[in-house]
Amino acid sequence: MRRLFWYGGTFENILATAAPFVAAAGGEKAQIGLLFAVATGWEPYLDRYREPLLTLGAERVSVICPPLGSDRLDDAALEQMRACTGLFMGGGDTRIYHAVYTQPKVRAAIRELYWRGVPYAGFSAGALISPVDCTIWGDRLTTPGNTVFLRGSEDGCGAELHLGEGLELIRDCLVEAHFAERGGFPRLVAAMARRPVRYGIGLDNPICVEIRDEQEIRVHGRGRAYVLERRESGGLSVQVLEPGQRFTL
Known about the structure:
Blueprint: E1 3-7, H1 14-24, E2 31-35, H2 46-55, E3 60-64, H3 75-82, E4 86-89, H4 94-101, H5 104-115, E5 120-123, H6 125-128, E6 133-137, E7 140-143, E8 146-149, E9 162-165, E10 173-176, H7 185-194, E11 199-203, E12 207-212, E13 216-221, E14 225-230, E15 236-241, E16 246-248
Parallel strand pairs: 1-5, 2-3, 2-4, 4-5, 10-11
Antiparallel strand pairs: 1-12, 6-9, 7-8, 11-14, 12-13, 13-16, 14-15
């Protein structure tokens, strides 16, 4: 079984929301690769990810990231990744994560592991870049004669909406983190207008969405998840998912 875990973006209930991921990664035998992208001031955040995973019983949590000043993983880091039974990608500047982890060799290694059954968890930026199509940056949409401020995950950056190719772990959907907290609905709608995907999934901060075999959604944590679906007749429908509910893509 293939399992994706997407986290909206808070540590306040991480023990509850990360428990299904650690179990899927092997529980007490879990060898988790914590995928980071080095940026200024990132070190204090390491233990916020690592300690809950160890508390939940993982045998080992190894930090995997490029050397300082680089955006490339070396061969040793890729080999370390291939030995993991679970991958957990952190949050931060989505542009940096995208630059590091969608490089062909790195993306191929992540995809190989995922399709082999190694669970992948993405926290905010780590969730955003995991589909085929991904929203990388921007909170503004400029069209002839009009400018719309979208807010969303990068609220306040003042840049044009920018999409690209992600890790290709799931097709036909886009995802937006910090959904209620940063007003991500307009940005997700704008992103869906630029890509011919069927679904857009919004994640409130305390929510974890688990997706099994790219089809079955299970909702963990607190807050809500939102599934936007493109109608054949035009427009979008919205379904609100509460913790404990399920949905089939």
